[in-house]
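New to this. Please check both lines:
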Amino acid sequence: MRDDILSLVYAAIDDVNAQAGETVIEKNPEAALLGGDKGVDSLTFVNLVVAIEEQVQSALKKSIVLVDEDSMALQEHPFRTVGTLADYVGKVVEKQ
């Protein structure tokens, strides 16, 4: 299942990179998203979250919300890297 979710996240990254006209997010589980100097800006992050939610809706026919009070309250926030985000997406999808 993780590989399937990672594929959806990578498809969303392709969407975001296409909108930007350049590679702003690497398709690599270790690529930084939020936090640190190598992360993406807030608009890119929001676009990525929306693109992932759309990919999940399209591919899995499940409506999910990735950013809410619960996700922001987690001890280890899930938005550090592409890999941690994919793991979190998998958990959210499983709950649906």
Q: What stands out?
A: The mean pLDDT is 93. The domain at 2-95 is CATH 1.10.1200.10 (Non-ribosomal Peptide Synthetase Peptidyl Carrier Protein; Chain A). The CA atoms of residues 19 and 57 lie 20 Å apart. The helical segments are 2-20, 42-60, 69-73, 82-95.
